[in-house]
């Protein structure tokens, strides 16, 4: 039993802006085994993107990051700039949220894929980098000729594939995908998910998949972690959590995307009242209690810790 | 639909071409009073162009649109915009934040439609009622807010209130919950379903989300490359689809119960280069499976199954479906 | 419920004022401007207008080219007039012309810009050609020609400045109107049956008014400078005593050579101060309207 590829302990991230401190992530801990895959689900304001960006120290200067992040044996938070550079893109690579718009419009796609190789010196020369870039393009299902195209000449699905190729440029061990299929059509989404699955097997990648769509995660990931108000509120094997959620929030999130063919959701859309909490303005006690259908008086007292809710599962709710 | 009942909106053989690109290429549909029709498809299917044509925001190239039986004059932009002056048809938008003028209070936003059509004496009452019915209670509390002071879900409710205050009979909605958080989707959809049940509102909703159709739609029309390729009651389309495209779509919806995934190759073709014969044939898994008899598989690449008829309540534009049905 | 809307508008105005008060640059600008406005308004109290008359000056026994030590507070010029009087009364002209010309500029520019942007089509094309024509014509020759045709008076100067400055306002506003026109809430208003006038009044104007204000605030100093330039070139009203005129007379009559700094320095500094004041105020208003500019990361 080897060490996990990624190990996070008590990660706490606080933004500082306009003189206020906004706690985006409040004490998150989890592991991802080598070759495993973790899905991180949650809605706006839950802290999942912040967490993803923190893994490679990509948060704005002045952000307070406490806790421990061990990636590939390296203590990310205490690395020197040189050490950090060595880790970025080679140990872990990230596909950013909204990245469809993050491609440089005046650089060809081939050049953009080759760029990380040259920056991190994983390719001996320009021509080697270019060859590798073309190789990656083919691997993600695009013809080699596309290397000379500009981003605006590609469709949404094609651009997403380019981003995947870019992330793989330096053969990372961990791939963090932040909402990679959110803006894509159903069929294209299926294609991209299938591609990620193939690549994962072929390159023995470890995957961290972030999205608000729970059902997508159950296909793509072994384990699932649900985030709410900066903390993990449920964790466990993906199918088990999706099929039988322990935490009321997970239940609501799962119900938001009804199973087609399920009579109980026909003409019966189910949702939660209220809105996801804003990070600086959390309710007292359990942050979910204002919207929770099972809330009791005890829920206002203190925020529940994660407790076991089954084999290899945990949920942060006093009713578990 | 019962004979003798005029559909609220009826589209007949609509074409919207942008030069060589045939975004809508012969589509027909009807929405009956009190019914929810979901128009589903991927980007490039033409669904947004179709609803924009109905909304009066896009001039059709040919074909007819009838609102409550009265044809819309397609000759000029001004004429197609006459639908704006018909309070019976109102719209809900995909982006609730963009749809609200940041400089207007919620009260002014909801009252706007009323004021445009004349100043009713009971304006405040009607605004309060609309807000309340849209789930914003107590309504008076919301009067003075600006859009940036309320949440995304509340903004969409304001849009809905602004539409409902006009007492419409038909709501045209383009992706009404796509930009909202997952946990509040259900509430907005439940609200829309309540309005149908309470006041007999009809809704034409355009979406890529089949789960939404399962949640609130009575009927579904599936669009591919400018045509409606299958239509029918929701249960039929989503539980037992006939058209190979619909089957493939359903197979990849993560929320579908066990169905073997049929991931299509490539993407929807460019509307300026629509394939010959059946427009879906180059990607059709049924054709590629080789299990079709020669008389059918021979027709697919050469003969266009044609658009579905106007009154078709349950049909699919597919040779395999029509020819096998004719036999069996 | 217009009262609710009014309440919110007042609250917004109060908030803007509070933010303005917190801005050091804004308050400095406002302060400096305030001082000059007071000087201009209180001109009759601060200096006798008769002092501008060379005959009066001579009969009062003023020295020629008297320095401030000899003739307080700002000395005299080549025809024995009090420089202080010219400064005080000149402030009136400079500020008035600046303001009036700006109002004209903003009025023409806004109407053209909004109509052009909103209506579009052939009218837009037509108006934009006119705008471009005005932009392309070199300002100074046009001003000289107009001044010589119309004659040299304060009102004509205002007219000349207005006529030559409106195009940039028009272009700016047209661009903003085009942007606002595309916004979804305009589509929504249309779908509710709103006509052009309703959309312009309720949706376009409120969303461009900030730009108009910011533009106006920055146009005033430009108008003042333009008036100064025109007066300096001798195109100004010979009977009015603007700062530009003072600078012209100082130059033409050799004040620089004589080192009679008290003659040209006050007017020059005055212009500088007023222009700076308006610029600071304008920048502060822009910051308040668009906080993203402030962070500038």
Describe this entry's structure for a reader.
- The complex is a heterotrimer of chains A (320), B (328) and C (297).
- Chain A has 320 residues and is an alpha/beta fold.
- Helices cover 28% and strands 23% of the residues of chain A.
- Chain A contains nine helices and twelve strands.
- In chain A, the strands form two sheets. Chain A has an eight-stranded mixed sheet with strand order 6-7-8-3-9-10-12-11, sandwiched between helices.
- Chain A is globular, with a radius of gyration of 20 Å.
- Chain B has 328 residues and is of the alpha/beta class.
- Among the domains of chain B are: 67 residues, no CATH class; 89 residues, no CATH class.
- Chain B has 13 helices and eleven strands.
- In chain B, the strands form two sheets. Chain B has a seven-stranded mixed sheet with strand order 6-7-8-3-9-10-11, sandwiched between helices. Chain B has a four-stranded antiparallel sheet with strand order 2-1-4-5, with helices on one face.
- The longest helix of chain B has 18 residues.
- Chain B is globular and about 70 Å long.
- Chain C has a single domain, classed as Orthogonal Bundle (MetI-like fold).
- Helices cover 79% and strands 0% of the residues of chain C.
- In chain C, 40% of the residues are buried.
- The model of chain C has no long low-confidence stretch (mean pLDDT 87).
- The interface between A and B is large, with 45 and 41 residues.
